[in-house]
Amino acid sequence: MEQYGTILLVEDDESLAQWVADYLNNQGYTTHCCHRGDEVVSMVKQHNPDLVLLDIMLPGQDGISVCRELRQFYSKPIIMLTAKDEEMDEVIGLEVGASDYVIKPVRPRALLARIKANARAAQDSSAQSDSSSAILNVGNLKIDTQARKVLVSGQEVAISSAEYLLLHFLASNAGNVVSRDAVFKATKGREYDGLDRSVDVLISALRKKFDDDPQNPEKIKTIWGKGYLLVPTAW
Length: 235
Fold this sequence. Notes:
- The mean pLDDT is 86.
- The chain folds into two domains: 5-122, Response regulator (Rossmann fold); 135-230, Orthogonal Bundle (Arc Repressor Mutant, subunit A), CATH 1.10.10.
- Strands 2-1-3-4-5 form a five-stranded parallel sheet, sandwiched between helices.
- The radius of gyration is 18 Å and the shape is globular.
- The chain is built from eight helices and eleven strands.
- 35% of the residues are buried.
- It has helices at residues 14-26, 40-47, 63-70, 87-95, 108-131, 161-172, 180-188, 198-209, and strands at residues 5-10, 29-34, 51-55, 78-82, 100-103, 135-138, 141-144, 149-152, 155-156, 220-223, 227-230.
């Protein structure tokens, strides 16, 4: 069977982890399992996986703090596994750098679709950075696509990987309204399912970081019924 890449699965329920690992292995992935949060960083450095599946509730160290620590050196997709209806976990996970999230109980085909979509989005983003100009300027906003750094008026702004992908897409289309579906395809590699609020969470986080009034935003606007607009004259 064709090999598609390496996945690190972090899940403290060992029977569930084995079941998911067997499924992913049968789909052509090489899967390594980790059952403690405080062992994740060393395993990522050891195996350099193409994607991390990270549960939030873990012994040793919780998934949120693990994700934050990984994002200091690891830029590939991190998909968080969250308990059903735990919306705050989803929000915090996205804010600390998770690429996406999957709600438990895990449905194999849905999980596989998310894995493929995030891997595809990461590859597309990397290809775009390689082929496009190294610097993207919109007013006082400067995005260094090679270093993945964001600066406003010369001051660097720390943003997560997921926030970077969204900001880069909006800035690349500055002055044009982009649909929610287009945002999902560009940043997550999949279509909008009608329920996922992750883009709204990321838009809110970007507004906070760029001092854009959430009640009356000027830099990143939500155009109701149409999508989102990064206003070039506001930067």
